[in-house]
Each structure stands twice: as C-alpha cells, then as structure tokens.
Amino acid sequence: MPANIFLLFGNDEYGIAQRVRQFIAEFKDPGAADMNTARLEAATMSDEALNTAAQAAPFLADHRLVIVANPSRKYTEAAARRKFEDFLLKAPPTARLVLCEELAPKEAEKHWLVKWADKNREAVRAHAFMLPRAREMTAWITQEAAGKGGAIERQAAEKLAEMVGNDTRRAAQEIDKLLAFANWSRPVRLEDVQALSIFSAEQSVFDFVDALAQGSGTRAQSLLHRLLETDEPFALWGMVVRQFRLMIQAREILDGRGNDKDVARTLGVHPYVAEKATKQARRFSMQQLEDLYRKLLSIDEGVKTGQTTLDLALDLLVVELAG
C-alpha cells in the first residue's frame, strides 16, 4: 500500500509550498481540488476539525487532501504527540495527510516528527526542504528558470543570487518577472536583472521598517500605502517578515561580537542587505525582536484562517508598533 502521510519539513518555505501545489495539481479537476482540500493551521485548529477533515468522504475524487501547518505549535506534550501520531496512522486511505513543519537544519535531526516518520517509513514519506547555501543559489536559479520554461544566462543568475541571497521565494518571484520581461523568447541577461533590480522595493521595505523602529507612525503608514499601490500584498508581507527574520539573525551575530560582514557571510545575503539588517537590529534587543516576530506569526495565522485581511493587518501592525 502506498504511503498516504507526507511530512514536508525544513526552512525553505517556498520549496514546501511548491510541493503542496503539486499535491493539489494531482486532482484532475480544479473544482474537485477545491472541494477536497482542507488547510488547517495546527495552532488554531481543534481535534474535531482535524478528525472531520480526515474522515470526510471524497467528493468526485478518489481522495481528500488534508494539509496541516506546523503541528509542533499544537502538540507540545508527549501524550498529545502520541495521540496525534496514532490518529495519523489510523486515518482512512481516502485521506492524504500532508504535514508542513518549519524547521532549521539543526532542529530537524532531533525533531519528534522527523524521528516518527523515520520509524514509520512504510506509512510516512518525509521530504526535507532546506534553503540552498549561498554558493548553490546560482545553480538553483538556473534550474528554477528552466522549470518555468525559460532560461537565464550564468552572469544574470549570479547577479540575481547576489541580490536575493538564499531567499528562494524572492528569487522565484524575480525569475517570474524576468522571464516575462524576456517574453520567454530568449535567455534572461545580466542587463535584464540590472534593469529590473529588486533594490527599489527592498529599499522601501527597509525604510518602512526604519519608520516602525523609530516610532514614526505617519511615515510608516505613508510608506506602507505607497508599497501596497505597487506591490502585491502577500509579496510585500513576505519581504517584511523576511526583514524581521534577518534582524533576529543579525542581532544574534552582533551579540556574538560579529559585524555586518559576518552577517553577510553567515546568512548568505548581499552586503547591502546585511548592512541594513545590522543597522536596524542594533535598535532592538533580542527579546524585543522575538516578541515582534511572534506578533508577525500571529498576524500570519489570522490572515491564513480568514480572521483578518492582510491590508488591515499591516495597518494595525503600524498602529501598534508606531502609533
């Protein structure tokens, strides 16, 4: 019997999301995919909601797809974890269960879900999605462009890698834009990357975060609304979350007596990005940054569960942090 439980884990959120899209694409009819796909955020879901999603009969399809994000945020006690694991193994064969867990490389080796999947290989398929190292991004960009039906010259790929570091989602978004610019009729060139530089948007996000850090609510609101006029909200949200994540990592390096050059080398980001993240990180303690990041996670959950819209959540964030 083929495995019907999939554990997708790692720190490459884009890679995990792409694999989830592949599961959805396996439904022959998009309508059937919508009716047979349940997305659950573990931290806010009830056991009843999970049970209902898994036990429901498929509609005009041979299976249902149940996607559970970050089970570790709900199942923190050993007894609860065992109950969850038993539930998964006893789920009906018509339920394809996909567990998505955000994990850093060092966490993965000892994580309870990874260990459980390894012990139950006949029923569970585990796939690691780790961010490429900085030196691997040129090849990743080249392969991603080919997978999207286009091509990119090596110098162009190297320049884009220099700009985005190992942020695969940002890289994929830029590749989409560059391939469209080249109309898929020729390889993307270095001058294309330079012409469509991401630094204008990046600089605006830096300015936005600066305004938040300085408590300048009026300026932050103005920058936010200007960004929303030109950028897709979820792309903007990803940039904001990434910036705070970079600040936490930079603060950790600073606390270890490092500097912006150490940030660039350790995180695999462009020196300009490292310099900005380091400068901003100096304005906060690690505790303050961790508290802010938890706020961002709470907003993310609220948007994904339909409790709020992203535009409204961003406005409220500005009011709370810089009002």
Explained architecture:
There is one protein chain. With 323 residues, the chain is an alpha/beta fold. It is 61% helix and 9% strand. It contains 17 helices and 5 strands. A 5-stranded parallel β-sheet has the order 2-3-4-1-5, with helices on both faces. Helix 7 packs across helix 8. The N and C termini lie far apart (57 Å).
Please specify the SSE layout and strand pairing.
Blueprint lengths: L4 E6 L2 H13 L4 H6 L1 E5 L5 H9 L8 E6 L8 H13 L4 E8 L2 H4 L3 H8 L4 E5 L8 H11 L6 H11 L3 H14 L8 H6 L3 H15 L3 H14 L2 H23 L4 H8 L3 H11 L4 H19 L5 H13 L1
Parallel strand pairs: 1-4, 1-5, 2-3, 3-4
Helix pairs in contact: 7-8, 7-9, 11-12, 11-13, 12-17, 13-14, 13-15, 13-16, 14-15, 16-17
